[in-house]
Amino acid sequence: MTNPLYELQKYGQSVWYDNVARALIKDGSFKKMIEDMAIVGVTSNPTIFEKAIGNTADYDDQIKELVGEGKDAAGIFDELAISDIQNVCDIFRPVYDKTNGLDGYVSLEVNPKLAFDTETTKESALYYSRRVDHPNLMIKIPGTPEGWPAITATIAEGISVNVTMIFSLEYYEQVAWAYIAGLEKLVENGKKPLSQISSVASFFVSRVDTLADKLLTDKGAPAELQGKLAIANSKLAYEKFEEIFSSERFKKLEALGATKQRLLWASTSTKNPNYRDVLYVEELVGPDTVDTMPPQTVIAFADHGKVSLTVNQGYDEARKLIADIEAQGIAIKDVTDQLLAEGLKGFVDSYEKLLGGVETKRQQLLVELAKR
């Protein structure tokens, strides 16, 4: 039986792995994923690093070295993350080369506390790009209004970008045009050929149903409206993607070697145990897309995922569903605004917790060094 993860490739969808940990680098797990599980890229975020660094001893030796160099907690985290990302980039470099820069990317996020700070986000993107210094690095920038000009500026510097935390169609459209504006500036400054730049727009899926289902329950709305908004919202984003990247404005750039900013489906694990565990993968299969899956979703889909072209099916039904939900007194904009605020706060909380854990280890090591 063919692994369904490979079947996704036939429909133009790439599978990336939403997890980074030093153990996966050391024990050869990433290489095995490339060979056996059709994994062609990796994404990370502060929550992932917080779990990897805080819950294992895999980083302790490097932390000791960095403490000896006088690094503070934030400086230590930077070095740990950069080391991991560089190593994972090396592992996925053959994929990047084989696909001519379509896949093989590894994402590293700027400090989530910068989500509303355009200038510092731009500086941070440049800093991480120079430090990691791998062509298959993607810098993750939150898709907030303050992030949009940072996306344009970063692309204009010839740096590939993964735009994260997108929930609404309105924000997605701004992100796509920000990418195109960056490509236009790159043409003007000539810093790098357009063909060497890539970008994805990370559109979050299952979290939408988690919140919408609760609101529908509170309103006493019909049960058949539950578990459907996330897919409908995502499909309409894909419709917008088709429109923007078939526009004359983008076609001019494409003729110069530019690639489309693919939609990346994030948060595709199923949160509600009553729903099919691969629901959010199966319903969003189609060309020019990426699905970044957490470990449990990769395993589940490899075991029993069903593959067919779904992402561009049912646009009118998606619009009707959204109208029906709004008729219940639930504004979709309020849902997506709340999810963005909660998502950003969650990443900031993880970042702070991570730094707190690193600081605890740092203080312990300083005491040990003083005793010696």
How does this structure look, described?
With 372 residues, this protein is an alpha/beta fold. The chain has a single domain (4-362), classed as Alpha-Beta Barrel (TIM Barrel), CATH 3.20.20.70. Helix content is 57%, strand content 12%. The protein is built from 16 helices and eight strands. It has helices spanning 4-10, 22-26, 29-36, 46-54, 60-68, 73-98, 118-132, 147-156, 169-189, 206-219, 229-244, 248-254, 279-282, 295-304, 315-326, 332-371; strands at 13-18, 39-43, 106-109, 137-142, 161-166, 199-204, 262-266, 289-293. It has an eight-stranded parallel beta sheet with strand order 2-1-8-7-6-5-4-3. Strand 7 (262-266), helix 13 (279-282) and strand 8 form a beta-alpha-beta unit. The radius of gyration is 21 Å and the shape is globular.
Spell out the blueprint of helices and strands.
Elements: H1 4-10, E1 13-18, H2 22-26, H3 29-36, E2 39-43, H4 46-54, H5 60-68, H6 73-98, E3 106-109, H7 118-132, E4 137-142, H8 147-156, E5 161-166, H9 169-189, E6 199-204, H10 206-219, H11 229-244, H12 248-254, E7 262-266, H13 279-282, E8 289-293, H14 295-304, H15 315-326, H16 332-371
Parallel strand pairs: 1-2, 1-8, 3-4, 4-5, 5-6, 6-7, 7-8
